[in-house]
Structure formats: structure tokens, C-alpha cells
Amino acid sequence: MSMELESTNENGNDKDTLYMLGGVALVVFGAGLILSNPFVRRYMSRIGVGNLAHTLMPDIQRYLKSRAMRDI
């Protein structure tokens, strides 16, 4: 009886992991479909997503550096 419960639990975890990875794959695929639309590309270029990423980079580097110092 105990072995059956452990076996069921392991399969349940595997199934949950499979569902999670499948969901992530669908999100990435959906984002790719949306961003492949020429209208969306033009809209994103008007907003200046590249400028936003360039502006955020120092903050991200500072966060990663402080996180690394915390781990010491």
C-alpha cells in the first residue's frame, strides 16, 4: 500500500511538471505569434522598448551585484 502511494505521488509530480512546462511553451509560442505581427512590431518600435531595456540595465546589474553580495 505504501509503495503504491509513493508511486502515485511521484507520477503526480511528474504530471504537474509536464503541465507547467507545456504552459510555459504555450506562453512563449503565443508571444512569438503576437510579436511576429507587423502592426505589433511598429507599435513596439514607437514605444521604444529598446530604450526601456537600455535604461533598466544599470538597475538590473545593481540588483544582481547586491544579490551576489548577500550570498557571501
Number of strands: 0
* Number of separate helices: 3
In round numbers, the mean pLDDT is 79
Uncertain segments are none
Secondary structure elements and their pairing?
Layout (H helix, E strand, L loop, with lengths): L1 H34 L2 H10 L1 H23 L1
Features:
72 residues
What does this 3D model show about the protein?
This protein is mostly helical and 72 residues long. The protein has a domain at 1-36. 93% of the residues lie in helices and 0% in strands. It has helices at residues 2-35, 38-47, 49-71. It starts with a helix and ends with a helix.
Summarize the structure.
The protein is mainly α and 72 residues long.
